[in-house]
Design goal:
seven-stranded mixed β-sheet
Length: 328
């Protein structure tokens, strides 16, 4: 496949990256694909419609194409407007490391390959590797970031510079927004949930706890059933593996639901003590599609201030239906 595409561009050296998802172990119809490559090449264009067609073409169980773009400037080149575009696909078997997911980011900013790799790792740790639909991973996943420098300007050789810090924030925010479309399209999902773990001894500990909550079937089914069962959240915090000793101190730990309408958080557990929960208000909060779960570790034993977020969805009857007859 890569050679066939290279031939269309008269490339003597390989410059094509092949990405694939699908039923594990099933061979691709290579002849059919090869015969269609010249047609696809002849249809190349830079219009929004062409980008949209490409985003739709990679959908599998996705219910909508996932495509974003934005413009930005950098401190060293305020007169240059840079572009950032991206597309992704995925709806099931979603959990780090990226799972059954394809993603592509593109920019005309001048970012050398070495810097690009470091930048992508930072962004992915906080986006595509911080989402979960069903806690399952796959044999097929790719996220590529291409930068051609066509817009000009000073090359970004360090992420510690003003330009580096700016591009890190821009790309990370963009990757988060793009990856969250995968969660919103999660197979059978009725809820879009952010779990935010704050006042942790380290980013790593906070992310491990958030990940454990996000993949808990009991948490996910409780959210689907609109049940404010905070004990399942606390349980997931407690059984999180690989934490720094003293990362979780029960009498310092608090759990709340944060409504997305900006109203006051509903406190469920405060410094290890259960609150008298207003079940009516809890039910109203859980009626909404969007929800934030806030877990405050109170600094743990060492008084940490780090935090991490994860984005996930609930488990519904529809998820079982989709995956129960995926091939048949």
């Amino acid at each position: 496949m890569s050679r066939a595409v290279d031939n269309c561009f008269d490339e003597s050296a390989s410059s094509t990256l092949v990405m694939s998802t699908g039923v594990i172990g099933q061979r691709l119809p290579i002849s059919k694909i090869l015969s269609a490559i010249p047609t696809a090449y002849s249809s190349l264009a830079s219009t929004h419609q062409n980008w949209l067609l490409a985003a739709r073409a990679i959908c599998t169980t996705d219910t909508f194409p996932k495509l974003l773009s934005r413009t930005f400037t950098l401190p060293s080149s305020p007169g240059i407007t840079y572009k950032l575009a991206g597309m992704t696909k995925g709806a099931g078997m979603i959990h780090p490391n990226m799972a059954t997911l394809l993603g592509m980011l593109f920019t005309d900013a001048p970012i050398p390959a070495k810097t690009l790799g470091t930048l992508l790792t930072h962004a992915v740790d906080r986006s595509f590797n911080a989402i979960s639909v069903d806690g399952d991973t796959s044999t097929n996943d790719t996220l590529a970031f291409l930068a051609n420098g066509a817009a000009g300007g000073q090359p970004i050789t360090s992420l510690d510079s003003a330009e580096g810090q700016s591009i890190t924030e821009i790309v990370t925010d963009f990757a988060q927004e793009l990856s969250q479309l995968v969660v919103r399209d999660g197979e059978g999902a009725t809820k879009f949930v952010r779990v935010r773990v704050i006042n942790s001894t380290s980013f790593s500990d906070a992310k491990k706890i958030a990940s454990t909550i996000a993949r808990s079937p009991l948490v996910k089914t409780a959210l689907y059933g609109k049940d404010a069962n905070w004990g399942r959240i606390l349980c997931a915090v407690g059984y999180t593996d690989g934490l720094t000793p003293g990362a979780v101190v029960p009498e310092k730990t608090s759990v709340s639901f944060v409504p997305r309408d900006g109203s006051e958080a509903l406190k469920l557990l405060v410094r290890g003590e259960p609150e008298v929960v207003d079940e009516k208000r809890a039910g109203k909060i859980l009626e909404e599609e969007d929800l934030e779960i806030l877990v405050d570790l109170g600094g743990g034993k060492a008084g940490g201030k780090e935090e991490a977020s994860y984005w996930f969805c609930d488990f519904s009857h529809e998820y079982v239906t989709i995956n129960g007859d995926y091939r048949t």
